[in-house]
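Run log // design_07
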């Protein structure tokens, strides 16, 4: 059995984990909104048409913030189509996903849903077909108290109090040729700057996210990020990053996605810090990793101009959940700079929660690692000093055999260690040196593993892939703990003073 040594010490902290690291995303895309969060004819719909079964699952993930309404959708969207009496709202062609948008749900309904779900809204403005002026009107509608055209329109539409949406995205993936009215870095930098000025004049308390590269595969990466930030640095608070992974034939490479994600984050930090130095700024820019996941179905079977077609409905396997866990560790390990992240997406569309129209709801395999890290990965992220063998990958070079992250929640007196064992042949012994947490006992060891890496949860077998609890052997407090991690497994090790 191979051995991996990992030392964690409370004096070697990475930083406070911002709860917004466990954010997610609902786009007007496929069945995310319609028959996802909203289905007025469903037996479990509440008085506003929101599915209560879906709300319960969202709450159980403790998602703190949800990005809305897109995504590619936002670049052709007029937010005013989604306000006022529902009967008067236009049915529109959504260019991004070639669907029909009925506008039954708009910003007011989404804010209502967010309150029920206990989440904060991260709203995006349209910088494709939209203008800086239109973005100004939207924030006036949402955040200005009263006494102006748009704020009074919101009040007339039944929301006396302002929505006070704190975080706003300046468009979406504007570097992409697929984007409705995509822009060059120069064009976007200027448009984002002018929009940011208006939005912060209307509400100085907001935080703004500039569009970074939509993937490191873009030919303009990372030059796009440099140019955009040179225009906007002092006016924005975050730069965004997006990255999706898929199994392209090599399990070893797929498992190593965590290493590529780390490299992408470090490059963007370097780019942002270069602009900080160049512009003589005092500000340290934050990163918003506001789209990340495993994603296979890119080329979509066409459902031309339907309402809520079943698109991008990836079904996730055990292997996907393992890879996903490794990526969560990377987010935690970079949480000193990645202050916000959104799992893309939340319901039906490349999502942990999957519904049947008029029927039930299931948790996909990726639901579990997300929930575990969201629940237990709070507090301080602690450096993990890992001494372990490497595995050789074709795309990413040599990467560690085990990916580890740790958090310390001082108030609750808990330490949690998250570990992905990428060894495909055998168990690995983790020798955990917890020198400054000697008084803690291990209270739980949860594992996701299994003989069938392709196993998936379905409506017929909804619990096929889920974590199991492993018997803890040798539960004494002390500096060194030895833990056996099954081959190809995602592990959550929980320690407590109590
Ligand atoms: O999350 C699905 C899509 O992926 C989003 O609309 C877009 O921003 C990205 O390309």
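design_07 sequence
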């Amino acid at each position: 059995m191979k051995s991996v040594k990992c030392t964690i010490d409370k004096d070697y902290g990475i930083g406070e984990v911002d709860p917004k690291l466990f954010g997610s995303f609902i786009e007007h895309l496929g069945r995310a909104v319609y028959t996802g969060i909203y289905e007025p004819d469903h037996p479990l719909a509440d008085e506003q048409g929101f599915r209560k079964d879906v709300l319960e699952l969202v709450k159980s993930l403790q998602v703190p913030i949800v990005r809305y309404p897109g995504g590619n959708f936002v670049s052709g969207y007029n937010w005013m189509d989604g306000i006022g009496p529902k009967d008067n709202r236009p049915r529109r062609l959504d260019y991004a996903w070639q669907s029909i948008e009925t506008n039954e749900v708009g910003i007011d309904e989404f804010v209502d849903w967010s309150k029920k779900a206990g989440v904060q809204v991260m709203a995006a403005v349209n910088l494709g077909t939209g203008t800086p002026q239109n973005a100004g009107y939207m924030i006036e509608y949402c955040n200005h108290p009263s006494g102006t055209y748009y704020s009074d329109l919101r009040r007339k539409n039944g929301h006396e109090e302002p929505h006070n949406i704190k975080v706003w995205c300046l468009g979406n993936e504007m570097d992409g040729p697929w984007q409705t009215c995509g822009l060059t870095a120069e064009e976007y930098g200027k448009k984002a700057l002018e929009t940011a000025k208006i939005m912060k004049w209307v509400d100085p308390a907001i935080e703004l996210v500039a569009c970074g590269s939509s993937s490191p595969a873009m030919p303009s990466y990372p030059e796009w990020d440099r140019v955009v930030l040179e225009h906007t640095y002092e006016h924005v608070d975050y730069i965004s990053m997006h990255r999706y992974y898929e199994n392209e034939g090599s399990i070893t490479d797929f498992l190593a996605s965590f290493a590529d994600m780390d490299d992408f984050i470090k490059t963007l930090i370097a780019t942002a810090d270069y602009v900080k130095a160049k512009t003589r700024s005092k500000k340290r820019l934050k990163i918003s990793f506001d789209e990340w996941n495993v994603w296979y179905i890119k080329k979509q079977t066409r459902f031309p101009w339907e309402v809520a077609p079943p698109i991008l409905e990836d079904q996730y396997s055990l292997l996907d959940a393992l890879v996903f866990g490794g990526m969560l560790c990377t987010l935690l390990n970079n949480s000193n700079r990645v202050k916000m992240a959104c799992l893309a997406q939340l319901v039906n569309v490349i999502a942990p929660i999957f519904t049947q129209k008029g029927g039930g709801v299931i948790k996909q395999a990726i639901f579990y690692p997300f929930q575990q890290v969201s629940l237990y990965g709070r507090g301080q992220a602690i450096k993990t000093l890992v001494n372990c063998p490497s595995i050789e990958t074709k795309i990413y070079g040599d990467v560690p055999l085990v990916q580890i992250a740790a958090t310390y929640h001082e108030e609750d007196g808990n330490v949690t260690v998250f570990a992905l064992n990428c060894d495909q042949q055998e168990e690995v012994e983790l020798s955990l040196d917890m020198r400054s947490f000697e008084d803690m006992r291990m209270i739980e060891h949860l594992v996701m593993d299994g003989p069938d890496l392709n196993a998936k949860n379905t409506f017929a077998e909804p619990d096929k892939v889920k974590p199991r609890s492993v018997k803890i052997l040798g539960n004494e407090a002390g500096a060194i703990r030895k833990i056996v991690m099954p081959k190809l497994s995602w592990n959550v090790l929980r320690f407590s003073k109590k």
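The chain has two domains: 2-10+382-496, 18-378.
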